[in-house]
Amino acid sequence: MVVNPADIPGTDKERRSKTDKVDARKLATHLAAGLLNAAHVPSEKLQKERSLIRFRKKLWGDLCRAKNRLKSELRFQGITIPPKYDNAHWSHNFLHWIEEQAMKDEDLQVT
Prior knowledge:
By secondary structure, the protein is mostly helical. The chain has helices at residues 12-16, 20-33, 44-76, 92-103, 106-110. The protein folds into two domains: 1-41, no CATH class; 44-110, no CATH class.
């Protein structure tokens, strides 16, 4: 049985003299009295699925940050994005347009 340590009530005396023996006795007493609730432990498959979702969300955030940085740099350089490209979807034509704008200025090419 897996139990959340914060769910186990204790006294101040038990906290000051914390030993394995005191903790074991406290756990046994509370378990015998039926005061402990088991914590849910997700399966390995569920943990892997959650990890995949978290990783995808992190990649999506990285992509959004990169796009925002690029748009910010264009604005800083005084380059206005044409209305036909100013939307959430970045087409190959828009990326090609960005490269064309960069090729017009030698210092901007490096950036």
